[in-house]
Every structure is written in C-alpha cells, then in structure tokens.
C-alpha cells in the first residue's frame, strides 16, 4: 500500500518558495497538530536548512548517535530523506530535531557502498530502491510495509515535489500563501518539472479548504485529482 502524501509549502503569492519572508513559526505551528507518520525531506532542503555543503563532515557525537534510544512506542514521525548520492553526512545534527522518532535514508543501486557503510556505522536505516535515482514509489511501498508508514508530509522544494507530482504519488497540496510578490525567476517554485505540461495535460486540483490566518496569510488546501 502507498502512504497518503501531502505536499506542504510556504509560498509567495507568485508561487515562489524562496526569496520572501516566510512565517516559519506559523508554518511549523500548523503542522505540529497534523497526525502523520513521516516527514519526507529533500536532500537539498536538508543541506540548505543546516547551511551545509554536499558531503560536508562536521564534528559529531558518534557514541550517543549509535546508542540513541529506539522506542517502539514512540509515536513521533520518522524523518525520511532521499539521498542517492550520499550527500548528507551531518546526521548528528538532524537527530537533534525534537519532533522526530528516527531517520530513514532512501538510497538507490547507484549509492556508493562507502556511504551505506557510513550509515551502518551510525545505525541509520536505509532502503535501496531504484537504479540511479530513488524509485520513490517502490521506496514508499517499503516504508509502508516495513515501518507501517501510512501518511507522509513532504517538506521539500520544487524538485522533489515535481518528482512526486509527475509520478502520481502526491494526494494533497497545502500552501501557506504569503502576501508578497517575489518576481525573481531564479527563486524556486513549488513544482519543478522538465516536461512542460501541455495545457490539456496539467495536474488538476480540487479546492477543499481555505482559511485566512494572521498577517493576511492564506492557508489553502487542494486535493490532487488523479
Ligand atoms: N518555502 C517552503 O515551504 C520550502 C520548504 C522546503 C524547502 N524549501 C526550499 O527549497 C529549496 C530546496 O529545494 P530543491 O527543489 O532544490 O530540492 P529538494 O526538493 O529539497 O531536494 C531534491 C530531492 O529530490 C530528489 N530527486 C531529484 N530527482 C529525483 C528523481 N528523478 N527521482 C527521485 N528523487 C529525485 C533528490 O534526491 P537525491 O539526493 O537522491 O538526488 C533530493 O532528495 C531550498 O532553498 C529550501 O530552503 C522551501
């Protein structure tokens, strides 16, 4: 079974996800009440968030990382990260996030063996799915069958959103629309796709919720019509 997948982004009115003053407190305050089993975070989002370069290594407390408590009764969400190229090495810092139960890395057959050993050395679970990139459908089926993950909130940029949308793997889109116009085409948007959809082949949405929050920010939720 495939988990239910919710894309969630803070955006400017012109659909950019960077280059404006996102209300981060509001963004996380809203999702803290959602009942989800996992957060799927793009590797670029992780690196940007931690201000790290791909492959960067920082000081880590390996002993407490390896001996961390794994409580089967823990109901907090997993953090799941596709990282087929083995770019993230600062796992110690990610485990300091308060909201997560444990981390699962999604790799592919192209992921260097050395990186898989790096993860094993930190007792971090990984799933191998796909040849070059991660086969997200196959990986999600495994997340469901092995870890019981039934619902996923995606915290990523337009690249991972794009792969999920084009693969028919996303079920809902939630946006926090901020009253700002960015206007810069170099700033990222919520949906990046190599294939420009012809007009009659766009992804269709159904509005299910709209709510004005503080400071003229709109929370809008659409179901994705499949
Ligand atoms: N405003 C918001 O709500 C918000 C939220 C999150 C992030 N952001 C911003 O978004 C930016 C990062 O976004 P981004 O779009 O550059 O990257 P991203 O979505 O964070 O990362 C790209 C992810 O897509 C995976 N991927 C790429 N091609 C794939 C394919 N063909 N099949 C399967 N997986 C594939 C990559 O996996 P591999 O590593 O395996 O290639 C990687 O994990 C940052 O600036 C961040 O601050 C904004």
Task: Give a written overview of the molecule.
Pathway: Cofactor biosynthesis; riboflavin biosynthesis. It comes from Methanobacterium veterum. This protein is of the alpha/beta class and 226 residues long. The chain folds into 2 domains: 1-34 and 153-226, Dihydrofolate Reductase, subunit A (3-Layer(aba) Sandwich); 38-55 and 71-149, 3-Layer(aba) Sandwich (Dihydrofolate Reductase, subunit A), CATH 3.40.430. 24% of the residues lie in helices and 24% in strands. It has helices at residues 24-31, 43-50, 62-66, 91-94, 113-120, 136-147, 158-166; strands spanning 4-12, 38-41, 78-82, 103-107, 125-128, 151-155, 172-178, 205-212, 218-224. It has a 9-stranded mixed beta sheet with strand order 5-4-3-2-6-1-7-9-8, with helices on both faces. The structure holds NADP nicotinamide-adenine-dinucleotide phosphate. The site of NADP nicotinamide-adenine-dinucleotide phosphate has 27 residues, from strand 1, helix 2 and helix 7.
How many beta-strand runs?
9
What is the ordering of alpha helices and beta strands? Answer: EHEHHEHEHEHEHEEE
Number of domains: 2
Q: Give the bound compounds.
A: NADP nicotinamide-adenine-dinucleotide phosphate
**Second-tier CATH architecture of the largest domain:** 3-Layer(aba) Sandwich
Instruction: Report the structural category.
Output: alpha/beta
For the termini, the CA-CA separation is 16 Å
Outline the secondary-structure elements:
Elements: E1 4-12, H1 24-31, E2 38-41, H2 43-50, H3 62-66, E3 78-82, H4 91-94, E4 103-107, H5 113-120, E5 125-128, H6 136-147, E6 151-155, H7 158-166, E7 172-178, E8 205-212, E9 218-224
Parallel strand pairs: 1-6, 1-7, 2-3, 2-6, 3-4, 4-5
Antiparallel strand pairs: 7-9, 8-9
GO biological process, one term: riboflavin biosynthetic process
GO molecular function: 5-amino-6-(5-phosphoribosylamino)uracil reductase activity
Domain Bacterial bifunctional deaminase-reductase C-terminal: 3-218
